[in-house]
Amino acid sequence: MDIKGARIVLIGGAGLVGSHIVDLLIQQPVSEIVVVDNLVRGSRNNLTSALRDPRVHLIEGSMLDSQLLQEVLRPGDGVYLLASLWLKECVEVPRQAWNTNVMGSWNVIEACQDRQVARIVYSSSASVYGNALEVPMTEDHPFNNRTTYGATKIACEQMLRAAHQQGGLPYVGLRYMNIYGPRMDYQGAYVSVMMKVLDRLFSGQPPIIHGDGSQTFDFIYVADVARANLLAMQATCCDEFFNIGCGRGTTLNELVSKLCELEGKPFHPHYEPLTSSFVTQRIGSIDKARDLLGFEATTPLPEGLENLLQWRKLAHSHC
Ligand SMILES: NC(=O)c1ccc[n+]([C@@H]2O[C@H](COP(=O)([O-])OP(=O)(O)OC[C@H]3O[C@@H](n4cnc5c(N)ncnc54)[C@H](O)[C@@H]3O)[C@@H](O)[C@H]2O)c1
């Protein structure tokens, strides 16, 4: 869609990815940027500088409130659907996961249909693929998922596909690989491996690696992910899913070793047994996103990790 003069609504836009999309949108000729977020994980702080722009509004509310969604959305809007419970939270509270990730997302899809929005960009996940059966995984890789979180993402993808087929709702879905960068949650109940490693390094302790560290992931910097979202909103293609990653694998050993190097600490991790049956191998093919969206990640891992470290130190010093 043409975003010139458009109104853009971000459901779950105060979190990691959403707040970086907002930062990009304020540089665009859009008319209004509305963030709807219940702030269970994201925060007003993530939007501090963006909220200085008079076009940006934050509405504190949940996508479980379908009346709120009907009131917020307007014909012709571009909508980002980002809100979701996190992987580990879905393990611990599966009913809540289905309620939020599936019923909440359905509320958004239904309101988007009723209000005739122009386009939805849905935040899916590479979790739909589960462990890689072949590398790199193309978008045709089977749904080898074994997690509640991944199951909710598959359900939403299918709901969108049905809404498109039966009602013509224009959408695309982005299957993110492992995202990192400034504004990652480091204080909540569910924090990522990278944040746990930094906690240990900052407190002078050796990092902990579960397993032998050979687990391989495709890490992508959050500003690149935000740019993919902007391109996905502007694209004309519909009813498509895209891997959003770098297309390169990095082992946990390599990742933690790089963080140690940047922090000036020796790489002497404690290896502990694997505690979960989550994915151990994930690298996405980037061809489709490059060909149809014109997207390629540009931030090298060392540069992105350095930015993350600097941000985290600053955030730490303000605690
Ligand atoms: N971060 C990653 O590595 C990653 C990887 C794959 C997929 N994803 C998906 O991308 C999306 C964005 O990820 P993120 O890292 O920015 O997550 P995040 O948790 O930082 O942001 C999600 C936001 O949704 C909000 N939210 C949760 N429930 C809500 C509700 N009921 N109503 C309104 N807002 C609600 C949270 O407060 C938060 O601000 C999510 O759907 C996530 O599943 C993320």
Write structural notes for this entry:
This protein has 319 residues and is α/β, with parallel strands linked by helices. It has 2 domains: 7-177 and 220-246 and 284-298, NAD(P)-binding Rossmann-like Domain (Rossmann fold, 3-Layer(aba) Sandwich), CATH 3.40.50; 193-216 and 249-282 and 306-317, UDP-galactose 4-epimerase, domain 1, CATH 3.90.25. The chain has 10 helices and 13 strands. The strands form 4 sheets. It has a 7-stranded parallel sheet, sandwiched between helices. Strands 7-10 form a two-stranded parallel sheet. Strand 1, helix 1 and strand 2 form a beta-alpha-beta unit. Helix 1 (16-25) crosses helix 7 (222-234) and helix 6 runs parallel beside helix 8 (252-262). It is globular, with a radius of gyration of 19 Å. The chain starts with 6 loop residues before the first strand and ends with a helix. The mean pLDDT is 95. The chain binds nicotinamide-adenine-dinucleotide.
Could you give the topology of this structure?
Blueprint (H helix, E strand, L loop, with lengths): L6 E5 L4 H10 L6 E6 L18 E5 L5 H7 L5 E4 L5 H6 L1 H21 L4 E7 L22 H20 L3 E6 L1 E3 L12 H10 L5 E3 L5 E2 L1 E3 H13 L5 E5 L5 E2 H11 L7 E3 L14 H7 L7 H17 L2
Helix pairs in contact: 1-7, 4-5, 6-8
The structure holds nicotinamide-adenine-dinucleotide.
Which terms summarize this structure?
319 residues; alpha/beta; Rossmann fold; UDP-galactose 4-epimerase, domain 1; 2 domains; seven-stranded parallel sheet; two-stranded parallel ribbon; 10 helices; 38% helix; 17% strand; binds nicotinamide-adenine-dinucleotide
